Amino acid sequence: MKAVHFGPGNIGRGFIGLLLSKSGYEVCFVARNEKQIAQLRRRKQYPVELANNKSDTSIIRNVTAIHINDRKDVNEAIAAADLITTAVGVSALKHIAPSIAKGIVNRFRTNDRPLNIMACENAIGASTQLKKWVYKELPAKWLVKADRLLAFPNTAVDRIVPAQNHEDPLKVEVEPFYEWVIHRPALKEGHQEIKGALYVDSLEPYIERKLFTVNTGHCCAAYFGYLAGLWTIQEAMADPRLKHKVRKVMEETGSVLVRRHGFDESKHRKYIDKTIERFANPHLLDQIVRVGRSPIRKLSRNDRLVRPALLAHDYGIETPYLVSAIGAALCFNAEKDSEAAKLQQELREQGISQVIEQYLEIEEKHPLHRLIVTAYNEIKAAGQAEAGAEKS
Ligand SMILES: NC(=O)C1=CN([C@@H]2O[C@H](COP(=O)(O)OP(=O)(O)OC[C@H]3O[C@@H](n4cnc5c(N)ncnc54)[C@H](O)[C@@H]3O)[C@@H](O)[C@H]2O)C=CC1
Ligand SMILES: O=P(O)(O)OC[C@H]1O[C@](O)(CO)[C@@H](O)[C@@H]1O
């Protein structure tokens, strides 16, 4: 079985490539870094180390790589593929869609095999988003065939893989925990099961539990930590005051999730405890700038901050900690983060209320709008945003 994976970055190598290879797939990474491609082609394997006491290491075999701009190679790989996966960042899906679409057209000319395409990104409905971009690129005459042969099952992927810094550029250090949940009913026939993945009939409870607990909690640790002038998530979680605030946010989103999906409260509390332990993993060094990256995306209406806040409002659940985290996110101004720079410029030029309307898509008359303005103004008035930026 052959898998084509777009984006051999941290999660691509440290999680998706690993599970695919261990399930018997030959993995062809579609990449854009020439040196990385050369290494993967020459060595055909790479090491993944677990962030635990023993630094358990496994070698991921049967892998290769091609360049995304090498049309012939990408076409051939897609024609022969049994599965396509991506981990490029949800905002980059539109950039890789033309390459996937061209490969699909070439495949349709050579064979009539069904193909599953899964976007393994931190977002609700990432594969559905990818489908939209790919369909935009497909010539009209192929759309009927695309409907018949292609499937874009949504997934939820969970494993903390920080930025890497090793002598071996292919090595990845990952946390021991992982969860890959796949929406089974959406799969086309002929899919070879991925060992270690969980196939479910309804994905929504899983993706929402993960996005609104792990990702909400994690980015809140980053934004609170940033304001405190810290560098790493581990430092933030070692500060009892910040850890308490992160837990409170997760309890607030937890109330939403329990209400919405009927989760067992005590089991969900254990899920929160386990997640907090994962954030604090002393074997990892995860930078606040990575976990808080792209604040405009993270503050968008359907993402990890605003979506649970809006749902909570609809359920009559108060979320003071989540609102204060949104205020902190609005102050995140990490160097080299283009979205952070844009957000700060918009705040300077348009003001907080306009930014909330435009980027968070919460209209002025919504009660949450006013609460976020207040939280943001309090942080600014306390001089915390500037102090955080200076120290970090
Ligand atoms: N790192 C983590 O712990 C986790 C990450 N994710 C998700 O996985 C995705 C990837 O994240 P990371 O692996 O951390 O990022 P990364 O930056 O390490 O890897 C991204 C990969 O995508 C490639 N890429 C990006 N834009 C591209 C484009 N326009 N054309 C071609 N290739 C492109 C990059 O070259 C790189 O190989 C994101 O959606 C993230 O939210 C999900 C769960 C955990
Ligand atoms: O990859 P994103 O969406 O920018 O967010 C970073 C986050 O995703 C993760 O990689 C975990 O799923 C976390 O490390 C962190 O919550």
TrEMBL record:
The keyword Hydrolase does not apply. Its EC number is 1.1.1.17. Pfam families: Mannitol_dh, Mannitol_dh_C. Keywords: NAD, Oxidoreductase. It catalyses: D-mannitol 1-phosphate + NAD(+) = beta-D-fructose 6-phosphate + NADH + H(+). Residues 203-375 form the Mannitol dehydrogenase C-terminal domain. One of its GO terms (molecular function) is mannitol-1-phosphate 5-dehydrogenase activity. It is an enzyme of class 1 (oxidoreductase). Residues 1-195 form the Mannitol dehydrogenase N-terminal domain. InterPro entries: 6-PGluconate_DH-like_C_sf, 6PGD_dom2, Mannitol_1_phos_5_DH, Mannitol_DH, Mannitol_DH_C, Mannitol_DH_CS, Mannitol_DH_N, NAD(P)-bd_dom_sf. Belongs to the mannitol dehydrogenase family. This is Mannitol-1-phosphate 5-dehydrogenase. It comes from Paenibacillus forsythiae.
